[in-house]
């Protein structure tokens, strides 16, 4: 299977929405607002990177990166997500390709690190780990993970952009 990972284009927006809806349709622990989050990030101008996975001209996956705020004043930190792969293509390595491309993009941006909310059994393979002193309120701490790219881990409360509250 030949998968092309690239930056989103303006003509991809509807397909990205469809991929995101499909990917989270049966997912546990979701309010099914991920497609609205991506749109709000884009509309707010804070979508730092938006990568798509394309197979035979069809968009089959997507990942978003956006800046986060940390209460200790640390800068250069980003949130990864949502990340989506259409159900009929899951388990084929597309999510891993998107993750690796997103991490490469963060390095190009000069990021200090990245946080995400997700299954620690999956994201550990990319170097993400729970970090003492770095918290996202109201979520089980084992699901909030970070990856240091340079410098030192910050300590404090992480806040995602207000777009993560988008409902529609």
Summarize the structure in words:
The protein has helices at 13-24, 34-44, 94-108, 120-123; strands at residues 4-7, 49-55, 58-70, 77-85, 113-117, 134-135, 144-148, 156-160. Strands 1, 2, 3, 4, 5, 6, 7 and 8 form an eight-stranded mixed beta sheet that branches. The mean pLDDT is 95. The protein has one domain: 3-Layer(aba) Sandwich (Aminopeptidase). Helix 1 runs antiparallel to helix 2 (34-44). Helix content is 25%, strand content 30%. Strand 3 (58-70) and strand 4 form a beta hairpin. The chain is an alpha+beta fold and 168 residues long. It contains four helices and eight strands; from the N terminus they run βααβββαβαβββ.
Our Rg estimate from Cα atoms comes to 15 Å
Going by helix content, strand content and strand pairing, the class is alpha+beta
Q: Say what the CATH topology is.
A: Aminopeptidase
Distance between the termini: 34 Å
Number of helices: 4
What form results from the Cα inertia axes? globular
What is the architecture at the second tier of CATH?
Answer: 3-Layer(aba) Sandwich
- Which stretches are poorly predicted, pLDDT < 50 over at least 5 residues? none
- Return the average pLDDT rounded to an integer: 95
**Total strand count, please?**
8
The total tally of domains equals: 1
Strand residue content: 25-35%
Tell me the name of the CATH class.
Alpha Beta
What is the percent of helical residues? 25-40%
N-to-C order of helices and strands: EHHEEEHEHEEE
What would you give as the CATH superfamily? Gcn5-related N-acetyltransferase (GNAT)
The profile of the biggest β sheet is:
8 strands, mixed
């Amino acid at each position: 299977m030949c998968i092309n990972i690239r930056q989103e284009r303006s003509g991809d927006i509807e397909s990205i929405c469809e991929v995101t809806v499909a990917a989270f349709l049966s997912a546990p622990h979701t309010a099914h607002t991920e497609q609205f989050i991506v749109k709000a990030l884009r509309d707010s101008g804070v979508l730092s990177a938006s990568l798509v996975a394309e197979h035979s001209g069809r968009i089959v996956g997507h990942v978003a990166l956006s800046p986060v705020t940390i209460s200790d004043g640390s800068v250069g930190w980003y949130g990864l997500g949502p990340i989506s792969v259409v159900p009929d293509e899951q388990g084929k390595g597309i999510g891993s390709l998107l993750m690796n491309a997103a991490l490469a993009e963060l390095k190009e941006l000069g990021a200090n690190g990245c946080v995400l909310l997700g299954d620690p059994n999956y994201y550990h393979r990319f170097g993400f780990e729970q970090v003492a002193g770095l918290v996202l309120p109201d979520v089980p701490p084992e699901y909030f993970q970070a990856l240091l790219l340079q410098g030192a881990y910050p300590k404090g409360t992480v806040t995602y952009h207000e777009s993560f509250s988008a409902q529609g």
